[in-house]
Amino acid sequence: LGLAIARSIVAAHGGRIALSTAPGKGAAFSIALPRN
């Protein structure tokens, strides 16, 4: 649920959210927002 909310907020601001995973390393989420 938290990721869905974060995705909606980021999209509303014209940004993007990405996920990077690796076996045994966990997950990392990146958020990019445009400069205005």
From TrEMBL:
Domain Histidine kinase/HSP90-like ATPase: 1-35
Membrane spanning residue stretches: none
Protein name: Two-component sensor histidine kinase
GO molecular function: kinase activity
Keywords: Kinase, Transferase
